[in-house]
Amino acid sequence: MNSVIGPFDTNLIAQEAGIAALKDEEFLKFIVEKNDEGRKYYYKEFDRLGLNYIESQANFVMVDTGKDDMDVFNKLLRKVLL
């Protein structure tokens, strides 16, 4: 069963919690602000490390690590699954 389930799939309880969170405008405002702070932190650190990146309005940032993407993906995936 685990071979067909992705590592980041969400269960029904998590989906219901997500729907409730989207209806909470104060929580949404808080999360948007935290997301913005996090992106700014990453930009600062990427600049410090000399890494190229694409600025984003989402909850992720595309960064060029200078390494093979599948190698980076697999190493990060192993960290998540441990």
Tally of DSSP helical segments: 3
Largest sheet report: 2 strands, antiparallel
Helical proportion, percent range? 55-70%
Order of helices and strands: HHEEH
Number of domains as seen in the coordinates: 1
GO molecular function: pyridoxal phosphate binding; transaminase activity
Protein name: Histidinol-phosphate aminotransferase
Keywords: Aminotransferase, Transferase
Domain Aminotransferase class I/classII large: 2-79
Give a structural overview:
This protein has 82 residues and is mainly alpha-helical. The protein has one domain. The protein has three helices and two strands. It has helices spanning 12-23, 25-49, 69-81, and strands at 52-54, 62-64. The protein has a two-stranded antiparallel sheet. A hairpin with a 7-residue loop joins strand 1 and strand 2. It is flat and about 40 Å long. The protein starts with 11 loop residues before the first helix and ends with a helix. The mean pLDDT is 89.
